[in-house]
Amino acid sequence: MGSAVKLDISGYCARVTLSHSGCFNAMSRAMWRELKQVFEVLQQNLALRCVVVTGEGSHFCSGGDISEYASFRFAEDSLRNFHEVEVWGGLQAMLDCDLPVIALIDGNCMGAGLEIASCCDIRIASTLARFGAPIGKLGFPMAPREAELVMRAVGELTAREMLLAASVFDAAEMLRRGFVGSVVLPAQLLPDGQTLIDKVCALAPAAARQNKQSFRVLAPVLRAQSATNLVANAYRYADTAEHREGIQAFVDKRPPQFLPAFLPRCA
User: Fold this and answer.
1) Can you give the pLDDT at residue 258?
2) Which residues face 15 on adjacent strands?
């Protein structure tokens, strides 16, 4: 099963497609590196006016490629490199892009997909889209920078529900909570997306780029203590039994058993 971040440019618009056949477009490590490269290329293309991010087929992105996790997640250094260099490198390149970025979201938008969608300026979802980050079932937390990004985009309450209760929300609920701008039938996702693309591309491109630069400066800081200050100790859980159990349970296709082996029971 091949994985790739595909780039197609037509006129003023670039289309970035997350593609991982048979895995609901889960992000492999190679895809994170490709995402960074693609957005660095787009940032330098002064002829473009818009970027569209979508998933191949009927899903946006189901999260990370868990089949790779055992090869690097259980050592602190390699886990840190994955999140701080590979994952954050791709997300930061998206955030640094001065072009308007539109997400067209169908099917699963989970974990890594939610983070990628959070980097986009405008989000349109189909009625079949589902949003969440149920990584607590896998025995690990969201990395600090990624958590700050998601919390800023989805709102604090929604982020807490997603991460602390593994809550998954449909498109209508995420519209109500302000994460997506519109919800359409699946057959209308591409046509309505194209209408928005045409609208964005008809506007002054230099003004759009300057607006993006202003947004980066004006974006509110969530906490006095930046996520950057949390990174130093963020990956000490790498070799814990809880972490290993969560990932192994997923591979084994069984519910994880965090109690009573790894944690005291709540009263």
Assistant:
1) 84
2) 8, 52
Into how many domains does the chain fold?
Answer: 1
For residue 217, the SS3 value is: helix
Position of tokens 């202003």? 214
CA-based R_g, the chain, Å? 18
| Whether residue 227 has pLDDT greater than 70 | yes
CA distances from 21 to 31, 61, 253 (A): 13, 11, 20
In a domain, 201, yes or no: no
pLDDT at 267 over 50: no
Does a structural domain hold residue 206? no
Which tokens is 31 given? 């895809």
> Is 204 among the domain residues?
no
Q: In this structure, is residue 85 part of a structural domain?
A: yes
What pTM was computed for the model? 0.92
In the chain, how many H helices and how many E strands?
Answer: 10, 9
Give me the half-sphere count of Cα atoms (radius 13 Å) on the Cβ side of residue 231.
16
Report pLDDT digits (tens) over 32-69: 999 999 999 999 999 999 999 999 999 999 999 999 99
CATH code of the domain in which 122 resides: 3.90.226.10
Determine the longest span between alpha carbons in the chain, in angstroms: 61
AA identity, residue 106: D
Angle at which helices 88-95 and 29-43 pack, to 10 degrees?
Answer: 20
